[in-house]
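Propose amino acids for all 231 sites.
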């Protein structure tokens, strides 16, 4: 299997390129628009044909590359059924599978960071978007976020996966590339709570500044803008 983890330093976003082998069909998760040419170069070097691209949720800290990749490759744009994006080709439901040759991902509805947040489970790993981060969890104070929904997504869905399951988030701000469900369950400070109310109390008092791109990125991602439309 080909598994490439790429990083955008400006937004601290991880993008994933997945394929069953060289010269096969490929899938991209959470692309950043400014990195489109880099993704296309990786795909070209590995002789991959991009057929599907997924966003885990409507991002507020960068403009997605989902639409630019679609424009360049005609790949299918995929998001969860709760997404408000106006340009998605395929919306998947909770527990629905996405197939790519010998690879299969299961969509898991994990709201809380946003009301359209989905995680994607693939064999020994899960792509958690902003729902579960390494040593943290996604904020819940905008885009119809809810600390109570986040608690349920974390404790009743993601943390019930096998402890050895690898965690690949959409962001990391400290140079960490992955973790495991077991490590996060035992060591993530946000998860050392005994109730939904205790988790909500933590999340409601973070007092974080809004993402710098919030007012630009969210409308652009809802409308599905491409590079020529934002430059």
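Proposal:
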């Amino acid at each position: 299997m080909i598994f490439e983890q790429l990083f955008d330093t400006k937004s601290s976003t991880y993008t994933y390129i997945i394929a069953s082998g060289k010269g096969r069909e490929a899938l991209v998760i959470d692309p950043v628009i400014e990195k489109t040419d880099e993704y296309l170069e990786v795909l070209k070097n590995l002789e991959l044909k991009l057929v599907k691209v997924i966003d885990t949720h409507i991002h507020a800290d960068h403009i997605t590359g989902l639409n630019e990749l679609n424009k360049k490759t005609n790949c299918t744009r995929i998001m969860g059924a709760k997404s408000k994006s106006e340009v998605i080709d395929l919306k998947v439901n909770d527990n629905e599978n996405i197939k790519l040759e010998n690879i299969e991902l299961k969509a898991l509805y994990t709201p809380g960071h946003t009301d359209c947040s989905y995680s994607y489970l693939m064999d020994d790993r899960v792509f958690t978007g902003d729902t579960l981060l390494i040593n943290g969890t996604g904020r819940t104070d905008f885009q119809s976020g809810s600390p109570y929904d986040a608690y349920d997504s974390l404790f009743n869905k993601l943390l019930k996966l096998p402890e050895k399951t690898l965690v690949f988030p959409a962001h990391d701000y400290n140079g960490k590339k992955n973790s495991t469900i077991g490590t996060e369950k035992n060591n993530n400070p946000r998860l050392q709570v005994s109730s939904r109310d205790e988790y909500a109390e933590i999340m409601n008092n973070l007092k974080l500044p809004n993402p710098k791109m919030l007012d630009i990125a969210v409308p652009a991602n809802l409308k599905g803008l491409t590079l020529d439309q934002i430059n």
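The chain is about 25% helix and 30% strand. The longest strand covers residues 2-8.
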